[in-house]
Amino acid sequence: MTKTVTSLFHSEHHANDAASRLKHAGIPASAIDIWTTPHNLAPLLEDLGVPRTDAHAYAEGVIRGGTVVIVKCDPSDVGTVVDILDREGVLDLDEQRAAWNSEGWEGAAAAEQAGEVRGAPEAAREMVDKDRPEVVVHGRIRVQSFRVERREP
């Protein structure tokens, strides 16, 4: 089972620094995605197991000038990836979402109406069932389990 680790950075510069540190730690460049434009970001994140409300919040963060880093890794590498990403420049998605909501942003509400769990972000984090991946929050970093199914030709 592959893990998807997601984070929102204050700037592209911080995201690129984190990606460089990840590569230096042995994470393959092909496992690291950096997003500076929101086009198709939310659907991609949902496909990787990110809850809809988080996926839309990450896209909003990019719209507001942030940069999203997505790392696909083995479970044994999660601790290293989280430690590297959880440094200067990474933003707390829950704090950002609360600030945007106070400004009138309705992204979270729209995502909830589209089928996501209503209530506090903690409720969504704790929801685990056979059809949804587990979401674990490590400080400002989120980790999703994602089963990669390979089909034989």
Briefly summarize what is shown.
This protein has 153 residues and is α+β, with helices and mostly antiparallel strands. 41% of the residues lie in helices and 20% in strands.
How are the SSEs placed, and which strands pair?
Layout: E1 2-9, H1 12-24, E2 32-35, H2 41-47, H3 52-63, E3 67-73, H4 78-85, E4 90-91, H5 93-102, H6 107-113, H7 121-126, E5 135-138, E6 141-146
Q: What low-confidence regions span 5 or more consecutive residues with pLDDT below 50?
A: 116-132, 148-152
Query: Count of helices?
Result: 7
Give the biggest sheet.
6 strands, antiparallel
Indicate the overall shape. globular
Arithmetic mean of pLDDT: 82
Radius of gyration: 15 Å
Which structural traits does this protein have?
alpha+beta; 7 helices; 6 strands; disordered C terminus
Account of the protein in words:
The structure is a single chain. The chain has one domain (2-146). The chain has 7 helices and 6 strands. It has helices at residues 12-24, 41-47, 52-63, 78-85, 93-102, 107-113, 121-126, and strands spanning 2-9, 32-35, 67-73, 90-91, 135-138, 141-146. Strands 1, 2, 3, 4, 5 and 6 form a 6-stranded antiparallel sheet that branches. The longest helix is centred in the N-terminal third of the chain and has 13 residues, at 12-24. The radius of gyration is 15 Å and the shape is globular. Mean pLDDT is 82; it is low at 116-132 and 148-152.
